[in-house]
Amino acid sequence: MLLRAALAALFVSSAIVHGAHAQEKVLNVYNWTDYIDPAALERFKKETGIEVHYDVYDSLETLEGKMLAGHSGYDVIVPTAEPTFSRLIAAGALQPLDRGKIPAMAGEDPALLKRVETSDPGNKYGAIYLWGTIGLGEVASKIKPLMADAPLDSWDLLLKPENAKKLAPCGITMMDSATDVIPSVLKYLHHDPASTDPKDLADVEKTLMAIRPYIRTFASGGAIEALAAGQTCLVMSYSGDVIQASARAAEAKRDAVTYVAPKEFTQLWFDMLAVPKDAPHAALAMQFINFILQPGTIAGVTNTVHYPNAVPASRDKVDPAVRDDPNVYPDAAALGRSFTVAAVKEAAVRARTRMWAKFKAGH
Question: Residue range 293-317: average pLDDT?
Fold first, then answer.
């Protein structure tokens, strides 16, 4: 009996030590594809001894599905503010950030944090990771021969069917995201981007269906390679993706790729650092978020992926070519023309999803 008790005590002690060791040494991160500075992960491990298990996704639907199912095993996730981040908050799937353990969050731009409060009142559940705009990726050398007077600085280039028809031969790619496309088309049609009016949605459907015959492909992350390789000449996409494509095209000495924030408006989006409610290593998650928000760390991320961050103190550490590019860091006038999307009710989400499926199918 004494031997059995001793062995049991030893087993319990070993389990406690092993559990504490795991708590100290492992962090599970789930982020977008091609959306981190690998050197930052290496430095975090070197400085803390914590091993980072890093997985990626390419759609918000995938992320949301895992989070709502629960027990994902992830400690840090990077949802876009709308619609996923706000929906995860409403569903109780996230835990409030422990601001006392994330002092670096105090260094984030208050004006940008204010923009996110429509999704997260009081900024309780997330810190801004990166942000950007949605606009057009263009290969002007392929567009101009087909349309000498192409309105390269306007949404008309894509959304007017007579223009799309002319550019179809060089390839038009639409981002595969109803969440991002529909609000911008509503805005283009002078409707409220958050409108749930069936008549407004019908206007969007009419506009999109008019250009559907001229769209070659739908893509999310894949638009980077298609643009860089010259397989498409016009893309509606995220600013940073197009800018990455531009760098890859230049490196391969292919036709120049340019990101354009259309003169009428751009949609502003935010990707957030958040912690699932059932994160197995929540304390380490707070430590990781604080590390990422250090000016030197987040500057390295911006330099790698060409998306702006929300830490003003990082600006002097960002490569001048990136920092001074107005397509990466929009100026005050461009920000003044931008809008952010708001959450819509579930019935409206279903209506948008049905319309999007119809648009993609082309009938």
Answer: 97
**Predicted local confidence at residue 19, as pLDDT:** 45
Domain count, the chain: 2
Q: What is the pLDDT of residues 36-60, one digit of tens each?
A: 999 999 999 999 999 999 999 988 8
The token pair at 187 is 């805005």
Q: Are 138 and 152 in contact (CB under 8 A)?
A: yes
Are 168 and 256 in the same domain? yes
List, for residues 274-287, the tens digit of each pLDDT value. 999 999 999 999 99
DSSP string, 307-339: ---S-GGGGGGS-HHHHT-TTTS--HHHHHTEE
* Nearest-angstrom CA–CA distance, 205 and 182: 9
Q: The CATH number of the domain where 34 resides is what?
A: 3.40.190.10
d(CA 134, CA 157): 15
Query: Residue 122 has which token pair?
Result: 């009081």
* Residues 203 and 94 grouped into a single domain: no
Strand, coil or helix: 214: helix
Q: Say if 122 falls within a structural domain.
A: yes
* Cα distances (Å, whole numbers) of residue 175 to 218, 219, 244, 324, 363: 6, 5, 16, 26, 18
Q: Alpha-carbon distance 154 to 188, whole Å?
A: 10
Cα separation, 177 vs 117, whole angstroms: 23
Residue range 95-145, pLDDT digits in tens = 999 999 999 999 999 999 999 998 999 999 999 999 999 999 999 999 999
Q: 53 with 29: CB under 8 angstroms?
A: yes
Cα–Cα nearest to 131, from 312, 316, 241, 272:
272
pLDDT tens column, 1-17: 444 444 444 444 444 44
Same domain assignment for residues 170 and 198: yes
| Euclidean distance between CA atoms 292 and 305, whole angstroms | 14
And the tokens for 241?
């993706």
Structure tokens at 230: 């010259």
pLDDT category of residue 264 using cuts at 50, 70 and 90:
very high
Q: Are residues 196 and 249 in the same domain?
A: yes
